[in-house]
Task: structure prediction
Amino acid sequence: MPVLRSTPIRFLLQALLAIGVMFMLVKCDWGSTPVDEQSLVVEAFLDTDEPLPPVLLRQTAPLTGADGQRPKTAEGARVLFTLGETEIPYEESSQRPGQYLPVRDTVVPPQVDWQLTADWDDESARASGQTAAPITIRQVCVDVPSQPAEAIQVDSLRRDSLDIPADQGYLYPIDVTVRWDARSSSPERDSTIWVRAQLRPDASAFSSEVVDFFLEPAAIQRETAYRRTTDARRWTGVYAVPVDSATAPLPRHSLTTALTRGDTAFASFAQTRTDPDRREPISNVDGGLGVALAVSIDSLSKTVTDSLARNEHPQCWISGGS
Amino acid sequence: MVLPIVRRVVAYITALGLLCGLLFPRVAQAQSSVQLDLKGVPLEEALNTVRAQTGLDLVYAERLVSNRTVSCTYTGPDRTAALRCVLQGTGLEAQRVRRRQYVLVKAPSTKKRSRRRVALSGYVIDAETGERLPGAHVYLTALQAGTTTNRDGYFVLSALPPGTYDVRVSYLGFSTVDTTLTAGGSPTRISLDPAAIESEEVLVEAGSTTAEETSQVPGMTSVDLARLDRLPSFTEPDLFRALQWTPGIRKTGAVNGGLSVRGADPDQNLYLLDGAPVYHPWHAFSLISTFQTGTLKNTNLYRGAFPVEYGGRLSSVLDAQMKDGNRERPSAVAGFGVLSGRFRIEAPLSSNTSFMFSGRRSYIDKLIGRTHPVTDQSGRRDTLRTGYYFYDTSAKVGHRFNEKHRLTLSYYHGRDDLDLRLPFDLSLDFDSWLRPTNLFFEVKQNWENRVFSAQHQHLWSEDVFVRSTAYYSGYQALESSFVQPTTTASLASEYSVRLHDAGVKVDVNYHHSVSHEVSTGFKLSTLQFESTLDSEVFRSTSLARRRQQESDLGAIQVSGYVQDVWSPTPEWTVQPGVRVSYFSGGDHFRVVPRLSARYTVDPTWLVLRGSAGMHVQYLHRLRDRHSVAYDLVSSRWVPSSSRVRPSTGLQLGFEARTHPRPDLTVELDSYIRKTRDVLVPSDVFQEKDDIEGPGINVGALLGQYTRGKERAAGIELSAVYGDGPWTARLGLGSGRTMVRAPGRVQSGLRWRPSDLDVPFTLRGAFGWTGSSWSATLATEWRSGYPISAPVARYQVGDPVESDPVTYLYRPRINNNRLAPYFRADLTLGYSFEFLSADWTTTLTLFNVTNRDNELSRSYEPTPAGVDVQSQRGLPILPLLEMEMRI
Result:
């Protein structure tokens, strides 16, 4: 019965050989395909009704380098902007290497097609889109509580250790409501329009990641997702100003409320620029890193003082007013 | 992209063809012409001549052929004619059992009776407990034909010529029995004695094999539960932890996490307990499994390829059966470990009825207390909570109405319960905890499995066996939390998941003959998936948002299968089968063929197995990747629908097993797998980093995933050595698992290592067992898990920010690896008698070398470069376990 008993070693060797051949053949096309790693980084932000912006070209830098090597600029590039049917060449700034400026003054009109091309060191980066419709802040209202709230200072919501010390502090959570003019256009186009609302105080931040989870100093949504009242849309966010004690007054600080309107490329970038592990944000540049975006921006800066904490009603400012 | 796939499959088949090449000369030999010229030759000598020239396998009792002489002349190609020539005038005839195999019997008086065939049947029983043993191997040594007992311990070898046969009966962990049985009689009861572990050897010879040895499917493992307790485990004897010594199986985390089989996702494993699926078989945040080894009598694991009887998953099947209970006498076992205590009672209730009842509960909450009343200096009171426990209850009752009808009722219920109310300040200064506080968090989480199964086993006739199963499997989880980080901000959230799976199935086995065993079956099940979310976030006193959502999905699944275990010759066994299934969600209908085969080159030296099969999975386990408020510990399953296609996979497997020494078993496995329509996170970097996620609607969940393909290939080598008190295991695995899926991949659509891709694994265990003492040293070395490491950094600004931000550039996902993982665990055991009971104390030193293993790595850009942080694994831990047997 055991016909091959006399040759078991041979059989085993043949088995091993066959398995080895199989594995080598299977593995041969599994090697990692070379990836075209980019080294040209583009940065350009077109603001509607503003002059054409400078274009910044940088290079990627190694992770570690002698003397803390910083990312370098990309010099000697050829940059061309096309706005509608008009081509506008750029030339490198003599004062700031890597910064490219338009050769002639041109104001960015709303809702026209644009294209950017940057050629540098055998790399060619391109981006395109349509300029944004202007956005106008109508009103900003600030609601300050009468006294600060207790808050915990701890770095993470993770509770997987028995040694996570935390301190207790105080902060003023301040609600801010911003209203802006609603657009009247087709629903199809509205679905591609995004708005980022931001509260940017110049006060120091409360250093607690847990508390940060609950604050909402910014929002990025489709414009149609914001609540609409008659001819305006509004959003309410909250930021915090830390104080030393339960009786401390609200520190005087400046608050800038900013609205940025842009397309899907802008939203993708804005939503991912704070990704975990500092991963690169989503880029709309073909053949390079970075972003070239068309947006419209409006902002309103006001001083917030402790007197607002004594108001029963929110303090509101109208854009252009006092 | 098709070409590389075809090339790989062709390469695989070509390599296997090389192996099969050795077999062809044997076939050619069988086609040669026969020449007989015998005059007055003893019959036995004549039969040997026929055997040598024809390759026929002739089986007979010596007394039948002794003292007989024959004369015969034959020239020609007809082997049966040559055999008839030799038997002419001897009063004997040859009855064909299967291709090229005949049994010689006395020629009957009439032609009609000459064609009578009978069955050899019986039950295999544990002599100590009286329990019937499923999966025992019954082997007719002369015919080189065998079968395994079914779930009721019943075996039958049909269509045998009447007569007596030498039979060898073997079962993992039991002494082998050699006996003689008469075909055609009533079913026989064969009792096997448990083998003493310290004297048991891995003795392999023809016929002395286990279900694992006789399986047609490569990669099948029959878990030796008796030896399991001696392998190091993190807390107590645990089935899943022991399975990790099987090549190709590992946990996704160092201590916790699901089981990954050959690099596949944990949700591709099917866990069955007495025929009912268990959806979340984990306790203590996946630290230990719900499968208590002491309650199980038989556990089979299929890696990669499994018979058509099983379906619904892509990667593996774990089929466990609970003990029926000791039918001979009452017995009790109690054990105490670091985490939990347990007991098991077994007893006969009558001559036909027995039961098993088992319980386990953790007691860490009893040690540290569940509630802690606290008071501060002002007299303010509060109650902090630190409650966590888990428990299992298992019960089974078996009743035998008669030899043909048997009913078993199985019940399992396991639950984890976490209840915390703590301040945020969790410093090691415990005084800071024990005071009332305005800022605190509450977490209530519980999850549970409840399984009920009724199985009726009916011996319809001596060669038809019918098993009917009705089951219910429920899984539910509740996550409730309240977080108050400031006096004006809070999160209150309640999230629940419920899954109900109820079904009936009927399996029929027909033992047509030694050559054919036909199985068919049918299953109907209903699935219900429910989840709810009610959360309210106060970002300040006036800015609040409440979300209430419900998701309720249902589906009906119908499946059926048919397969034949065909043993045309003693060397070959082929198992073709097809499985048909319909899933109402999306009206998906799938027909998947499977084929496996075993070729016994030599029962001792070499047994080869191969398989090719397709598998379908209609359920996907997904988790929200954004919110910290829900989907933290729950398993949420999403059924296929018109939007979600079922995952389908093709797997080819090959296995060679040899026993070069009686105490050594060496097994070489290889596999290649291709799967499509698996759901892959569209952004692998996304982790829970937000209070409010996109919600629990299925659309919001699916939006976080994308459809992808996966492929894997690998080789696994394992060796088991046993010599008296010494045992040694070695497992070496080499394989790759790659995925390709669209998503946020800067470098485009390309194959990349999956998150569970581990190219090399080496495991070893070396043990010694004496009469009182035992010791086992187990080690594991493997490649680190893949990570996405940055290759460069760069700066980009923002339209409204003045300063640019530094980012890390990761053009490829999983382009790097963590440092290799190594761990050694040492287990020392001591057994003694005390107070008329048998005691066993086990001390396990986890990570005995105190190696600082790297579990994860993060990168943070700095002005000068990048800061790399690694999370490290557990240090050396002593763990004590004690068990008492009465």
In short: Chain B touches chain A through 104 residues (CB under 8 Å). The mean pLDDT of chain B is 85.
